[in-house]
Amino acid sequence: MKNTVIRYGIYSAITICVLALAGWFLGKNLDYSMQKVIGYTSMVVSLLFVFFGIKHFRDKENSGIVSFGKALLIGVLISLIAALAFGILDVIYIKYINPDFMAEYYAHYVEQIRQSLSEAEFKIEYEKLEAQKEMFSNTFMSFLLMAATVFIIGFIISLISALILQRKPQS
């Protein structure tokens, strides 16, 4: 199981990093909503290795048998590797590759809510944003947020894959 988790976790991590970098550099002229779509699509595509990792373990290492719990564990561990890799990549991106990203995204988001809310509602939301600004500008929080996003999506894919791929021994 350990070899499967490491192998497919690395496949997933490499895929998410390559797709994220490609999205960042090729999509830098796209608006933020389109970049989000590309980002989430990259996460889902890279996390398909969860399904293939569980299937590989079941068919090649465990004689065609895998319990729901074991399949879920494999998927969660593969997701964890991808989540950690993406969290680290995000920190590198916002700290070294594009250090202005957080300020640019914050300004974009403020402008977006300014256009969609009344002046009174905007002032309330803006105060909330300002209170949270420092926390979300923190490198550790950025890592945690991005890693958690990938992990949650990976958990959902692990759950679905475990349900589909579980196979009990024939009695």
From TrEMBL:
Keyword Membrane: yes
UniProt keyword terms in alphabetical order: Membrane, Transmembrane, Transmembrane helix
Entry keyword annotation includes Membrane: yes
Highest taxon above the source species: Bacteria
Listed transmembrane segments: 5-25, 37-57, 69-94, 143-165
A Pfam family: DUF4199
Name of the protein in its database record: DUF4199 domain-containing protein
Provenance organism: Aquimarina spongiae
Lineage per the UniProt record: Bacteria, Pseudomonadati, Bacteroidota, Flavobacteriia, Flavobacteriales
